[in-house]
Specification:
Elements (H helix, E strand, L loop, with lengths): L7 E4 L19 E6 L15 E7 L9 E2 L8 E2 L12 E12 L2 E5 L7 E8 L2 H4 L28
This protein binds S-adenosylmethionine.
The site of S-adenosylmethionine has 22 residues, from strand 6.
């Protein structure tokens, strides 16, 4: 077993799972605030020089996991590791958000797709040269997804 000490809390407008965005790419403008614990605040030095960050966090409101799930964007079942479903054996989420401000132990961000008061495990700067893969990329079932990312909202299926 591994134990993590969250570095802070992510505050978002989304109090319930129903009807919230299913990805940060579909949450344009949704504003959030991150409060970092005082003991980790010195680690925010220089972060204001970046426009975007990866947030790594705990899907804290998921009970248990499913190894096969029907993702929000498909009507067919897929293995959990071929999806971004929150109901995973290690309930870790990752989102790229836009920084709108950094001060002391607080970061304001946009494009949040996590529930209010989600425990934050890590922050990493978004760097296109590291994070954008060029060349041949295969995207599995997502290539023919029957539903539209921007029109699809979360429901209770992974609670
Ligand atoms: C499909 S996941 C994608 C999250 C992230 N962008 C990723 O790819 O890991 C987003 C959904 O997870 C659920 N969710 C968000 N925050 C959660 C939390 N703290 N606990 C449980 N479920 C959460 C909501 O249903 C939300 O729409």
């Amino acid at each position: 077993m591994i134990e993590f000490n969250p570095i802070g809390i992510i505050y978002t407008p989304f109090k319930t799972i129903e009807n919230m965005p299913i990805q940060s790419a579909a949450a344009k403008g949704a504003a959030g605030k991150i409060i970092i614990k005082e003991e980790f605040a010195a680690g925010l030095k220089d972060l204001e020089e970046f426009s975007h960050i990866h947030l790594i966090y705990h899907f804290s409101k998921c009970a248990g996991y499913s190894l096969e799930v029907k993702p929000f964007l498909d009507d067919k079942t897929h293995g959990i590791f071929s999806t971004r479903s929150p109901k995973r054996p290690c309930a870790i989420g990752m989102s790229i958000v836009k920084i709108t401000g950094v001060s002391a132990n607080e970061i304001t961000v946009e494009n949040v797709d996590m529930l209010d008061q989600t425990p934050l495990l890590d922050i990493k700067p978004y760097i296109p040269e590291f994070d954008v893969i060029g060349g041949d990329v295969k995207i599995g079932w997502y290539q023919n997804k029957p539903k539209e990312l921007h029109e699809t909202k979360s429901d209770e299926r992974f609670k």
